[in-house]
Amino acid sequence: MKKRLLPWLALLWALAPARAAAGTVVEIRLNEIVHSVSADYVRQGIEHAERTNADAVLVWINTPGGLETSMREMVDAITTARVPVIVYVAPTGSRAASAGFFILLAADVAVMAPGTTTGASSPVMGPQEMPETLKKKAFSDAAAYLRSFVSKRGRHPEVAELAVTEAKSWTEQEALQAGLIDAVCESREKLFEQFNEREIKRFDGRTQKLALADARVEPWEMTQRQRLLTRIIDPNIAFLLFVFGLLGLYIEVNHPGFIVPGVAGGISMVLALYAFHLLPVNYAAVLLILLAVVFFILEAMYTSHGVLAVGGVVSMVLGALMLVESPPIPELRVRWEIALAVAIPFAVITVILLRLVLKSRRWPVASGREGLLGQVGEVRQEIGGDAPKGLVMVAGELWSAVARAKIAVGQRVRVVSIEGLLLTVEPHSGGWDKPSPAKESGQ
């Protein structure tokens, strides 16, 4: 029996090293701007790799840049990770610009695919020009932060600083020759093949050998919550949610009982405020948008020959363009065409709705007892004859009525006042004839 088991035990012993060599690589894809949600996504992916004892983390990156605070969160997560982190700028045509350049150089292994670029990391606070002193401080701080980890990765900090001080960019071959990256690989498989069994120096100074041969790639996807938040904190979506929220609440206030505009407006407003919490919002721009709503309301109440409406449109467009204080990246800006396409319809809808509301408040009451005032009816029982009270048919109903003069059966009368259930009428001379609700409805 033992002799029969020996060959099988030998086979298992031979296969064991092969199975051990096949490691796991957690794959993260950063294909968007750098913001708080994407930073949380990358950090959670690295933490998952640490919990599962993965051999490495592979971060695919294609980003125009983003927020500095979120970039620093990613860099800290990469430099303190217990597992090696490989950052790969791919596929062809991708870029690791601005904040993406910092993330690339913070990696244990920095790789770019053919036809990719990186660099252009000068700090920019917004579309306006920074004062010279503030500009020097921002550039000096960014350069010092870059040097703090680039030199420990064995790359050239003097060259890397040019991306900050001169906004310099590099192609993949230029970055490789300048000693900013470790390799140029056209595919993930080539990357694994080139760096398998390669010893790398970690951020804390220790060395570690990469085990990438036949590695099993485990994709790390965004959660549904993160996907939703990524869409919401798009400045264009946040602006639309804020404006639609204002419009929905405005309609509900002016037309109580519609319910749907109020519910939709409330939800949109809460989502917009949450997005504003995550974005670097300029609250002066929010005040400009609210001021635009005030101008639209005043345009409906007073005659300004369109001056207030035009002022409201200009205020809303300027507020939208100034809404997010961030680098001049299109993905982090409200596009002017969206701002204009929202402001003009919002102005028209607001002014028209409010004018209808104000006009309806000047209409005479058309329901209840007060709605009978001014209506014309017909005498069905003589008024002022043997009995002071008679009967009149008004709005399809018989009412007791009195009059100052005698009015015969069949004559038309008009209601002039109401006291309880008693009408005071007068002969109708054929002047103003307020139609009854029955006539208005076509009955």
Name given to the CATH homologous superfamily of the largest domain: 2-enoyl-CoA Hydratase, Chain A, domain 1
Number of strands: 16
Share of residues in strands: 15-25%
What count of structural domains?
A: 3
Label the CATH architecture of the largest domain.
Alpha-Beta Complex
Query: What name does CATH use for the topology of the largest domain?
Result: 2-enoyl-CoA Hydratase, Chain A, domain 1
Give the overall shape, derived from the CA principal axes: elongated
Q: What structural class do the secondary elements suggest? A: alpha/beta
Portion of residues within helices:
40-55%
What is the CA-CA span between the terminal residues?
A: 104 Å
- Could you tell me the mean pLDDT? 83
Supply the number of helical segments.
15
CATH class of the largest domain: Alpha Beta
Radius of gyration: 37 Å
Largest beta-sheet details: 6 strands, parallel
